[in-house]
Amino acid sequence: MKTLLKNALMAGALAAGTAFAAQAAMAQDSIYLPNLSYRTGPFASTGIPLMNGQRDYMMMLNERDGGVNGVKLGYDECETGYNTEKGVECYEKTKADAAITQPWSTGITLQVLPKTNVDKIPVLAPGYGFSPMADGKTFQWAFNPPASYWDGASMILKAISDGNLDNLEGKKIALLHLDHPYGKEPIPLFEAMAEKHGFTFLPIPVGLKEMQNQSAQWLQIRRERPDFVLMWGWGAMNAGAITEAAKTRYPMDQFIGIWWSSLDSDLKLVGEEGKGYRAISWNVPNSDSPVMQDIKKYVVDPGKSLINQGEGEFDWVFYQRGVMISMMLVEGIKAAQEEFDAKVPTPEQVRWGLENLNIDEAKLEELGMTGMLVPFKTSCADHTGHGGGWMLEWNGSKFEKVSDLITPDREAIAPLEAEKAKEYAEANAPWPVNDECKM
Fold it and tell me: Which CATH class is domain 150-284+391-413?
């Protein structure tokens, strides 16, 4: 019965997403914003609140303001199930009219990346994708603000070393990671830092079929006895790892995840036993903020949202992260409208807008989002912004911010980004590089 209900709700969600896009498309002025979503499959638990947050922010702007400067936001979803092949199909299906594409998978992002130079459609991958995409000179159409995976790895190492990575000398750090492009993404940075600072780095992969049964991985953790376990988990893997850690009584204060390993419902499975678990995050939820209250007023209360209110999804880190992601895109659109005096900016103009984001404290206050997102600024050469993040800690019932702003070690990361960006361009030659881009 529960499965049937879930499937019915999912079908309704997808239909509602399409109806939302169709309604916007009928408007005299609208901009088509497809999202390669994943509301089904083993990663649905993470995808659903993220997509709901993205959708609800745009719907709120359409309901409250009539869109952006008179232009309706035509949010649309194409379901991928987090499958790379389906993701590429969705990209091809939606690209003709798209002002943007959001791949929502590192694997899909890597497949779409070479197409962007030909199709000239910007890729927005906030906090995910290929870390060297920060190099805007090489990856002219790709954006991953406000922080990359290598930024995240650096910030976690800073946090567990009290700001001095030399304190990690002689320690053993395990990386429990999804055996997928996403999970492998931070490994080059961890390997470089281990060699430089003298700690042992131990990657422990989790296959797609092992996500819900990680007994072998946690047996290895018990045998190796690492000083810290870092997690690059996603979907069902997160819940499996957190449950296993609680069952084996691994010290939660030594268990730290990347931002995609901070789903409230995963920690609710263990409740009090999860106290002390931390995750780095570039957003902090605040349900009392003006923006969230407007979403509640214009979307949630009238019954236009797809969130599960009984589970408290409105308050989750992931739902409100989705809100922040749509804000980044909308601010890029607004910048393009102003710069080019265009009501409905072209993909090339939206690309310019994303290159000229300045999400500072004043902008966050103006948007009713004070303290909810790290301030950051992009440029022609910097497509990430590297805004940093905060540590969130599970207190037994919810995540709360427990650190000041942590910033990545750009001196350590930038040379690796340049090296890997160059390698990518050479491996995919001829690859256009914007030599005119200086900043």
Answer: alpha beta
Look at residue 438 and tell me whether its pLDDT is greater than 80: no
**pLDDT-based confidence at 436, cuts 50/70/90?**
confident
Dist CA 120 CA 153 (whole Å):
31
Its CATH architecture, for the domain 2-148+286-387+417-427, is 3-Layer(aba) Sandwich (3.40)
Quick check: 265 and 241 in contact, CB under 8 A? no
User: Which position has the token pair 């035509």?
Assistant: 74
Strand partners, 142: 123
The model carries a pTM of 0.93
54 and 92 Cβ atoms separated by less than 8 Å: no
The predicted pLDDT at position 439 comes to: 65
Decide: 126 and 332 in contact? Cβ < 8 Å: no
Pair type for strands 228-232 and 255-257: parallel
Dihedral, CA of residue 361, residue 363, residue 369 and residue 374, to nearest 10: -50
2-148+286-387+417-427 and 150-284+391-413, same CATH topology: yes
Please say if the pLDDT value at position 411 is more than 70. Answer: yes
CA–CA gap between residue 113 and residue 366 (Å, rounded): 34
